[in-house]
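hey can u check if this looks right to u? its 411 residues, i copy pasted from the old doc so theres a chance i mangled smth
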Amino acid sequence: MNRKYIFRVLTVVLLVSADQLSKLAATLLIGDSTRELVQLRLSDGWFVFHVHPDLNVRDSVLISVLLAIVMFALLASVIFCARRARAYALEGISGADGVKSCPRFTNAAICLLFAGVVSSMLFDAFLWGGSLDFICFERYKYLTEGGVQYTDVYRFDIDLKDIYLIVGGIMLLVRCALWDISVLKLPKEERKLVSKRLRDPVGLIRSARSESRSEEPENGFSFSVGSVIDLISTIVSGILASAVFGAAAYFIFTFVLLPVAAEYIAPLGSFLNDIGRKYDAETVYRTIQEAITLLAIFPAHYGANASAKRLEKAFIRNTEGRLLPGEGLAYRLRHNLLFDILTVAGVALIGFGLSAAQVKIPYLCLPFDLICRNFGVARGIAAALIITAAAQVFGALKAQRYWSAAYLFSD
């Protein structure tokens, strides 16, 4: 497992956490009031910098989902180009070592942009219902028109994620400028060739695909097309399978097993009658379905991990399918930790976000509806992350046994 990827993921997590915690702090400590930090008297008015939480309500859930897809697609394109463009554009170019790509500077810009997009498109859209801007700049200017004096107010609100996006965007532009300045030092013909390659996205994609084929694809998670597809399918199937498994188990438990057990076990029957007298029947049934759907995350992650066979085929082949659970888990932590971190974060945050947005699917519950309804935002996300992490470990171990059996009994 490349430590650089772990460091980038942790950086993004810390940036997103800082953004969300700052909004929670502003909401809890300030609320609807205003805390003035700086006030400057000017000749034609005054300037004020203060903290004042202001929720800018977003569009509908559907529009938010579409915007999130578009923004993540654009960001994925930026990451892909930043990683692959240099090698493709400078292949066979003399003096290529002098062309600056500023990898650390570029990684910092991408981390800021990624954190800003995640905060905006996932947390703000689905958890807060909009952008909670609390860093406010106001300019009060005295104006006179037709002999009447009045005050015109200019207001600008931002939050930390806006700062991430602005600073990350500026850093990316600076990186492009440094690249162009370095390329200008190359001979004219080679500059033309570099420019032609950068205008050829099809060639860039073909070069990346040929490079990924030449590498061993089974040594762990990397941002290749196949691995990203595995990641997305694991996240989506982890959420959907939990809802489907939960619905099936709910109907079997509620309408088959529970009535039969209550018929033959007298204490259970009286206990259920007491519950029915105290609580509304619809609330009881909904709570049961939500609890079963939450537990269904564990078998769902087994199926989701079993579908991503490429992750540990090399290890299973090298051990001839006879791996112990501890060895398999240790291997996974060394080579596929990034995959697991992204899976856990994706399932927990997207799943909890859908529950917080009160997305309804006929006859189905979402995995974290019960947590969202009872825990609140901060504790709910923490609980969702812990449960998803436990389910991912369970799913990885079960999937390894499945792959080992498939290897031993295959031709």
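The chain has 15 helices and four strands.
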